[in-house]
Amino acid sequence: MLAIEVQPLRVAIIGAGPAAFYAADALLKQANRAIEVDMFDRLPTPFGLVRGGVAPDHQKIKNVCRVFHKTAMQQGFRFYGNVEFGTDVTRDDLRRHYHMIVYATGAQTDRSMGIPGEDLAGSHSATEFVAWYNGHPDFRHLTFDLSAEQVAIIGVGNVAVDVARILCRTPEELAQTDIADYALDALRRSRVREVYMLGRRGPAQAAFTPPEVKELGEMEDADCLVTQEDVELDPESAADLESADRNTVRNVEIMQEFSKNRPSGKSRQLHIRFLVSPVEILGDSEGRVMGLRVVRNELYRDKRGRLRPRPTGQHEELPAQLVFRSVGYEGVPLPDVPFDENWSVILNESGRVLDPKTRHHVTGEYVAGWIKRGPTGVIGTNKADAVETVEAMMQDLQAGLVLEPAEPSAQAIERLIRERQPRFFTYEDWCRLDQMEIQRGEALGRPRVKFTSIDEMWAAVRHPPD
Length: 466
Ligand code: NAP
Prior knowledge:
The chain is of the alpha/beta class. It is globular. Helix 1 crosses helix 14 (381-398). It folds into two domains: 3-108 and 331-425, Rossmann fold, CATH 3.40.50; 111-328, 3-Layer(bba) Sandwich (FAD/NAD(P)-binding domain), CATH 3.50.50. It is 32% helix and 21% strand. The longest helix is centred in the last third of the chain and has 18 residues, at 381-398. Bound molecules: NADP nicotinamide-adenine-dinucleotide phosphate (NAP).
């Protein structure tokens, strides 16, 4: 098909997080091309992890939604919220209605550690806790036993840092955020006193970033403590630090500064520990978490030159009645879409989906964001990532490599969605919800009070209060 014949180019984007919005923006900005973008999300609300992942005390990061809103206001953009790919709309449906499809579904689950005790009551993934305190409709019914006095968080990435902060902040600090109401109530009653954040390698290999980890030393009623022994670098790490990037150098400096801290009488203590790996989550006779058995590690250089942890055989038990594993997100397969089980991503080349058997491009199908490259990088990383995908799409359009949908009109897909999911949410519905959430927050001096159930959201947009 000639590029000139595809007018307008109709594109479906699956997912409504940062990668999806950056891809939509790059598409809608194409000069001399009529392009229409329909964005689908299984939730009624857009913005993916910016709403459901970014910590509630990081409101400034959420300002990126204003950029996404501008994209959504452009002519040619439509949002179909509460429409699930694979159930309400299938890959075959999309291939019947669009010239191109972009999968931007992120990494929806978490990795497990594969150690005994991971299934005990009181052992959770950090991603569940994050989704719960951020009011994600699928996670609002979860409960976390915050009567625990000691909590262990496994991993030293930015998600672990977020979880540690939320556990250590005072109710007054949390009350200034958009944390879900039920989470605020539960955290008000929290008896957590000691939080351990455990890294399996040293401070020079930690995955957190300097501004995020520095904040751990600035909490109102929690001391952040690291031992002198833990911040002393082994000779290999010290040698690597000479040529390390700024973030790594700064991380080590911040840990060295923290190592000078002493308990100051604040009511909570956050201990950051390095070179320890959990080997077992220990349970009591009722199957509840009561501690963590860890092994001390040493570092060795693998064949690729990376410093890896290996156990020394020296064990220790830490008391903890609640354990969060924060060892990374993981992508999940989408129904009928080729998936690479080894890397937990959709196999692709520069954003073009590849057939796993032939390694040829599956015409008309693309990926952007974490489902394309794995769960790494900050929100802004997705911009360049999405632009790369859109460049591939435009080259393919030029070469006539697009799908030939039987029913490409906007009306045809809307008819189908109405039939399959009558309770779909438009972008205008989201704008109304957004305003209502902000108004609910104003009365309490909070940025917003979130709606957390889909029924509640539907009632609010269909029968708004006077
Ligand atoms: P991450 O950055 O990949 O960190 C995962 C952590 O888990 C690492 O410390 C890793 O250690 C450790 N780990 C992995 N497997 C382990 C095991 N079996 N036992 C013990 N430890 C293990 O993942 P994340 O924290 O989920 O963050 C995901 C992405 O979102 C990152 O790019 C992050 O920067 C971003 N993010 C940013 C913010 C922000 O505020 N800017 C907030 C949240 C998330 P090794 O290094 O040894 O593998």
